[in-house]
TrEMBL record:
One of its GO terms (molecular function) is ATP binding. The chain holds residues 118 to 387 of 402 of the full protein. It catalyses: ATP + protein L-histidine = ADP + protein N-phospho-L-histidine. It comes from Sinomonas terricola. This is Sensor-like histidine kinase SenX3. Its EC number is 2.7.13.3. Keywords: ATP-binding, Kinase, Nucleotide-binding, Phosphoprotein, Transferase, Two-component regulatory system. The keyword Phosphoprotein applies. Residues 41-257 form the Histidine kinase domain. It comes from the Bacteria. It is an enzyme of class 2 (transferase). Its main location: membrane. It is found in: Cell membrane.
Length: 270
């Protein structure tokens, strides 16, 4: 019935209206397709560790007296469970981001502090591969936003830099400001990315090497979370990379003026 009314109105209002309507429908179909793809991907990704845990439990039941096998199966169960936990956490984070209202719920955030917190949380992963994470350029830079989301975004970039680099290398983090934007770049000396992969790494569940990502605890959602967080803050994230030489991911966020900080209000253009 709704469609008939729209069609009658469209006939009255003329061609332009019909075209707008057609555009709208294309947009709805696109959004629906993205959502359906996401649900399909999530189900697939969840089924893999759940299936593995169930098989391993069966194997444990079948050989309770074989100490060696029990230990091996239990270890693998633990690994699959952590994968499941990471995946569930990232999915929750993504859905939390859909409803995030940075403009009304944000506050003044010191970029150096959130970066330092993110580095701290990645410390264990860095130590395990003897990778040194060095932060440069630490004059005070303030942005308006949600500190927890920002820490999580930077942590994802630093974790990736560590995950996709060989041991005994360096990860350099540079904080700068230019033209009213604070930029934070995370540069690694890792495996790098081909140009065609650089275009796609921010897509949900896109991985260059799925087996490698899974093995190292990746969920395939990290960079899409980063992109979401940064765009919610009115910023952008870009990548520069050369295969075999390393990658640099750069986040740019609108910087707060000194006097904006006093009232704790969002930047004027938000
Ligand atoms: P994952 O959980 O698999 O790391 P992400 O969304 O964080 O998922 O990243 C998507 C893919 O981009 C990764 O699987 C990896 O192939 C590639 N990637 C991300 N960061 C880097 C990096 N610093 N160096 C090389 N490749 C990277």
């Amino acid at each position: 019935q709704g469609t008939i009314i729209v069609q009658v109105r469209a006939a009255i209002l003329g061609e332009e209206y019909i075209l707008l309507l057609a555009d709208d429908r294309t947009e709805i179909t696109r959004t629906e397709r993205i959502r359906n793809d996401f649900v399909a991907n999530v189900s697939h990704e969840l089924k893999t560790p759940v299936g593995a845990i169930s098989l391993l439990a069966e194997a444990l039941e079948a050989s309770p007296d074989d100490e060696d096998a029990v230990r091996r199966f239990a270890q693998r169960m633990r690994k699959e469970s952590s994968r499941l936990a990471a995946l569930v956490q990232d999915i929750i984070e993504l859905s939390r981001l859909q409803g995030a209202d940075i403009v009304h719920q944000g506050k003044v955030v010191d970029v150096n502090e959130v970066v330092a917190e993110a580095v701290d949380r990645s410390r264990l992963a860095a130590e395990a591969k003897n990778i040194s994470v060095v932060v440069g350029g630490t004059s005070a830079h303030k942005v308006f936003g949600d500190p927890d989301l920002l820490v999580n975004a930077f942590r994802n970039l630093i974790d990736n830099a560590i995950r996709y680099s060989p041991g005994n290398t360096k990860v350099g983090i540079g904080i700068r400001d230019r033209d009213g934007l604070v930029s934070v770049s995370v540069a690694d000396q890792g495996e790098g990315l081909k140009p065609e992969d650089q275009e796609r790494v921010f897509e949900r569940f896109y991985r260059v090497d799925a087996a490698r990502s899974r093995q190292t605890g990746g969920t395939g959602l990290g960079l899409s979370i980063v992109k979401h967080v940064v765009e919610n803050h009115g910023g952008e994230v870009t990548v520069w990379s050369q295969l075999g030489r390393g990658s640099t991911f750069t986040v740019r966020l609108p910087e707060m003026e000194e006097d904006q900080g006093a009232e704790g209000s969002p930047p004027a253009d938000q």
